[in-house]
Structures are given as structure tokens and as C-alpha cells.
């Protein structure tokens, strides 16, 4: 039996960079989760009788929301729901399942790299039939709908047994509980030379992977251990936990410090990697060398043809605007298109669908390709392993070779987390207000060449996205970008992105922060960060 429940609109259901993210108690407010899901369904057309994929990263509140989503899908007229066993699907696996089953769309329950637990973060994101995050047109419609929503529809039936693989009928809808790992692992096997990687591992090449108590544990066990022969003891934190063991499942140098220190130490394995809460990010650290995500994108693009799935070369490369220009140099050399999009994977979807790019990446540790429509943490790890298995060089050698050929782009991001929203907005407004007067200004050794607020014109559907970050370009190719995060859940997070290009191989061994010092000083001079935020140092440096 279906019920229609009255509800008052919630004013704050505006999706950010990647879905709606709030603290768990907010999602637990009576009617809150239901209202957002109903706003999603009300913004879509033509799903009657069609399939919906539902899965999450296993964080606290995942199971409850999955039961609610299943009941609401039934009451709203979906014909079938596919749900990962235990309510689990990594974000790239969910994307693949949507595509493989030609589903109408999917609900991904995750707050990604944000911490989990009863007072931590939860999130809901809608993905469209290409498997990718809903474009802005849809997220804006969802928000608009949420502001006038006065009821939601839900079916009354018992909780579905999410742990039991099988097909059930309830509320006039078919519910399939599916193995979350196998289809995804099979897809990886079509893209990469598993035999070459198995041989590399068999020859004593040591791989360490930190699943950060998040969703990739079971995927890493199946793919890295069972199919590729990596030692099970080298998969750290492989059991998904609802609170990620109390840590941030964010694979960066701060939150994956244990792995980083191992990789820089005397007993380092040959290759180390980690993934985030929902499995779409990757951290790559070779023995003695951290590979920045921007560099990793460039290096994967330059070597992708070594993997069977990309042997015919790339159609193009796309990167988010704050990501460094390292990949641009690879695209130029390969003679393929290069695209620069706003932050967030949703902007790659059109380019991938139109066949305008094969590989995409973001400086925030996201890399992926046209095999799905999300970034994909394990995919990046496997492509690196495939390249290492073919080239039979160390990661360090591959990195150094790349820099020698293309030059090195020193790159860093400084985050000021949970600062006051008003001061963050003020800081951005005062830089923006002065942008026109910046060209020609000298700050220390740097001279500003141009400055703007990034606007994206989507070449496929013609849509325009404004205010995607403030860019300051210096003579000689260095760049500063200021942006406010769209994934945080308390206050505002200011991100400052810095890059400097260095063609001379004799100067490729500098410490990154030291190499970027003039830009760090310029950022302070332009934005008066310490005065405006009350902080004397960033919260996180990556
Ligand atoms: C951050 C990253 C962005 C990424 C987004 C979602 O967004 O900067 O590159 O696409 O997170 O990633 P923001 O707005 O906070 O800068 V995930 O792994 O959290 O889905
Ligand atoms: Co993520």
C-alpha cells in the first residue's frame, strides 16, 4: 500500500559539487531525507516501470536510507530496483551498474571523503542513465522542487533483506540484491592486462593498498588479492566500517599519512595506493615518490596506450580548471583535444558521451575514463600497475622520465577548512572586485599577466556555468586559483591552488612548498588570508 505524507519544504536542500551533503542528524530530521528523494523523483520524467540503481559507501545511516529509497521508488512507480548487497556499491561500481543494466538512473548514498558516524556526514546524489552525476540543469531543478515540496510518496512493506543476494517482489516492484564487486572487477579485466600485472607481482613487486576502512576493501580483495596475487596482508584497513574507524577516508598526505610514511621509509613497498570513502578517488605513491594527482593524470594519459583498453590511443583529455596544466602538455604532444571544465565530475559527462575525451582528472585525486561516468580510484591504481608491468621501471623512474620530457609542474593546494562563511564570502568578493586592476601588478618576483572568474561554456549542450573560481595568471606560466568548496558541511572551506611550471630538469628536485613560495606569498598578499580567516596556516596541504 502506498502512502502520501505531507511535509513542509526544507530550505537547504541545494546539491553542491557532488550531491547533497549534510550532517547525519540533519538527514535524520523527520521527513528530510524523504523530501530530498521526492524532489529528485519529481524532477525526472518517464521513469515509470524503469530500473533504479541504489547503493552507498556503507557509512552510518546507509542501510536506513536505502530502505527508505526502495520504498519511495516503489511508491513513485519505478519497475525495478537494483541494490548492492549490504547496501554497498562503490561510486564507480554504481556508475557501471547503471550503464550495464540500462537503468534509468541511480541514487548514490555517500559523502565521499568526508568522515562518517552518528554526528558526521551523509550524502545523497542522483546519477543519470549514462551513469554519471546529474548535470546542473537537473540539480537546479531538484533544488527548485525542494523549495515547494509539500508531500512525498512511500510504500509500506517490510525491510528488504539487503544481505541476501536474490530477487524479491514488494510494493509492485522487483528488487534485485546484487553482488557489488563482480561486475566491476570483470570490467577492470577488460581494460587492463591482468596477466602482465600478475607476472609483475609474481616477480616480487610489492603493492600496498590502503582502503581506509571504506568501500574499496572488498573490491581490493577481489581484484588485487584474488585476481592479481597481491599479498592479502598488504591491503590495509580492508574492512568497511560505518565510521571509517574514526578517520577521514580522504586519501591525501594528511589522512593517509601512515601509508605515505611507509612509502618514504627504508622498507617501502614498490608501489602504494589508497582510495576514499566511496572509492572514486586515488592516491598514488611510488617507493620514495608521491605523485600529485595532476601529474598522475598527465602520466596516465601519456602511457595509457600500454593498457589493452586504451591501445588505440586517446580521443582527448579533460581536466577540471584547478588541476595543473601538466596534462595539457601531453595532449599537445599526442595531438588530441584538451578540455578544461569546472570542478566536479558532472562536467565531464557530456564530453565523454560525445567521444571528445577518453581520460579525465581532477587535482583532488580523481582520475577516470570513458569506461564509466564517475572518477574511479581502483581504475587509476590498475592503470598505474599495468604501465609499471609493461615498462618494468620503478614509479620514480617513470615520474622522472615524464618530467624530463614534458617539464615539471610544481603543484599544491592549501585548504582552510570550516572557516566562517561570511569571512570566506568576503575574502572571495574582495579579490573578485579587484580582478580588473590586477594585470601588471608586481608581487615579489611575480608579475600578474591576467585575472578572471572562470566561466565554462559546455561545447556539447551550450550550457554556461559561471563563478567557478578566481584565476590569477602570472608571466612565465604560474597560476593561482581561489575557490570555495562545494562539499563541506560546516562553515566554508577556502581552497587555494598553486602551480608553477619548471622546464629545466636540473631544477626538478626541489621541495614543492619551497618551489611554490613566491605563489604562497602572492596568495597572502592578494587575499590577506590570515587576517580574513583568523588562521595562520592551512588546515590541509596537499
Ligand atoms: C571536492 C573536489 C572536487 C571533487 C569533489 C567530489 O569538491 O575539489 O574536485 O569533484 O570534491 O569528490 P569541492 O567543491 O569541495 O572542492 V568526492 O570523492 O568528495 O565525490
Ligand atoms: Co569520493
Across the major sheet, the strand order is 2-6-5-3-4-9-8
Q: Could you tell me the radius of gyration in angstroms?
A: 23 Å
The ligands found in this model are:
alpha-D-glucose-1-phosphate-6-vanadate, cobalt (II) ion
Number of separate helices: 18
- What can be said about the biggest beta sheet? 7 strands, mixed
Mean pLDDT: 96
Q: Classify the helix fraction into a percent range.
A: 25-40%
Could you say which structural class the secondary elements and strand pairing correspond to?
alpha/beta
C-alpha geometry: globular
- Residue share in β-strands: 25-35%
Count of beta strands? 27
Describe the fold and architecture.
The protein is α/β, with parallel strands linked by helices and 542 residues long. The chain is built from 18 helices and 27 strands. The protein starts with a strand and ends with a strand. The model has no long low-confidence stretch (mean pLDDT 96). The structure holds alpha-D-glucose-1-phosphate-6-vanadate and cobalt (II) ion. Cobalt (II) ion binds next to loops.
Amino acid at each position: 500500500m502506498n502512502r502520501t505524507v505531507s511535509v513542509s519544504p526544507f530550505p537547504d536542500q541545494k546539491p553542491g559539487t557532488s550531491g547533497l551533503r549534510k550532517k547525519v542528524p540533519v538527514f535524520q530530521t523527520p521527513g528530510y531525507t524523504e523530501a530530498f528523494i521526492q524532489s529528485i523523483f519529481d524532477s525526472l520524467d518517464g521513469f515509470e516501470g524503469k530500473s533504479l540503481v541504489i547503493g552507498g559507501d556503507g557509512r552510518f545511516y546507509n542501510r536506513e536510507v536505502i530502505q527508505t529509497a526502495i520504498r519511495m521508488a516503489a511508491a513513485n512507480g519505478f519497475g525495478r530496483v537494483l541494490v548492492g548487497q549490504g547496501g554497498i556499491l562503490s561510486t564507480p561500481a554504481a556508475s557501471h551498474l547503471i550503464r550495464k543494466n540500462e537503468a534509468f538512473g541511480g541514487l548514490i548514498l555517500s559523502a565521499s571523503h568526508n568522515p562518517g558516524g552518528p554526528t558526521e556526514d551523509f550524502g545523497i546524489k542522483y546519477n543519470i542513465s549514462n551513469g554519471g552525476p546529474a548535470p546542473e540543469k537537473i540539480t537546479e531543478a531538484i533544488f527548485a522542487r525542494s523549495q515547494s515540496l509539500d508531500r512525498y510518496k512511500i510504500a509500506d512493506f517490510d525491510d528488504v533483506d539487503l544481505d541476501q543476494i536474490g530477487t524479491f517482489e514488494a510494493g509492485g516492484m522487483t528488487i534485485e540484491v546484487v553482488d557489488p564487486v563482480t561486475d566491476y572487477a570483470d570490467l577492470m579485466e577488460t581494460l587492463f592486462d591482468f596477466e602482465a600485472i600478475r607476472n609483475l607481482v609474481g616477480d616480487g613487486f610489492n603493492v600496498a593498498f590502503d582502503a581506509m576502512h571504506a568501500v574499496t576493501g572488498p573490491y581490493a580483495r577481489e581484484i588485487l588479492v584474488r585476481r592479481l596475487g597481491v599479498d592479502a596482508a598488504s591491503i590495509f584497513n580492508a574492512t568497511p566500517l560505518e565510521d571509517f574507524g574514526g578517520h577521514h577516508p580522504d586519501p591525501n598526505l594528511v589522512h593517509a599519512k601512515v601509508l605515505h610514511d611507509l612509502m618514504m621509509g627504508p622498507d617501502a613497498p614498490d608501489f602504494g595506493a589508497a582510495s576514499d570513502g566511496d572509492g572514486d578517488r586515488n592516491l598514488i605513491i611510488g617507493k620514495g615518490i608521491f605523485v600529485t594527482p595532476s601529474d598522475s593524470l598527465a602520466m596516465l594519459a601519456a602511457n595509457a596506450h600500454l593498457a589493452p583498453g586504451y591501445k588505440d590511443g586517446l580521443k582527448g583529455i579533460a581536466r577540471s580548471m584547478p588541476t595543473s596544466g601538466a596534462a595539457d602538455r601531453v595532449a599537445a604532444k599526442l595531438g588530441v583535444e584538451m578540455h578544461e571544465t569546472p570542478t566536479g565530475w558532472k562536467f565531464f559527462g557530456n564530453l565523454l558521451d560525445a567521444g571528445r575525451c577518453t581520460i579525465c582528472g581532477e587535482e583532488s585525486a580523481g582520475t577516470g575514463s570513458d569506461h564509466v561516468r564517475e572518477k574511479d580510484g581502483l581504475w587509476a591504481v590498475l592503470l598505474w600497475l599495468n604501465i609499471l608491468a609493461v615498462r618494468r621501471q620503478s614509479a620514480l623512474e617513470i615520474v622522472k622520465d615524464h618530467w624530463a620530457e614534458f617539464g615539471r609542474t610544481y603543484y599544491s593546494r592549501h585548504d582552510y577548512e570550516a572557516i566562517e562563511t561570511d569571512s570566506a564570502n568576503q575574502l572571495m568578493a574582495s579579490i573578485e572586485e579587484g580582478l580588473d586592476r590586477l594585470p601588471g601588478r608586481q608581487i615579489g618576483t611575480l608579475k600578474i599577466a591576467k585575472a578572471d572568474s572562470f566561466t565554462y561554456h559546455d561545447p556539447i549542450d551550450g550550457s554556461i556555468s559561471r563563478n567557478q573560481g578566481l584565476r590569477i595568471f602570472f608571466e612565465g606560466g604560474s597560476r593561482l586559483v581561489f575557490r570555495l568548496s562545494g562539499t563541506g558541511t560546516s562553515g566554508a572551506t577556502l581552497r587555494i591552488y598553486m602551480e608553477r611550471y619548471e622546464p629545466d630538469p636540473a631544477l626538478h628536485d626541489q621541495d614543492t612548498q619551497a618551489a611554490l613560495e613566491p605563489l604562497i606569498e602572492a596568495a597572502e598578499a592578494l587575499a590577506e588570508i590570515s587576517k580574513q580567516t583568523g588562521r595562520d596556516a592551512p588546515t590541509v596541504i596537499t
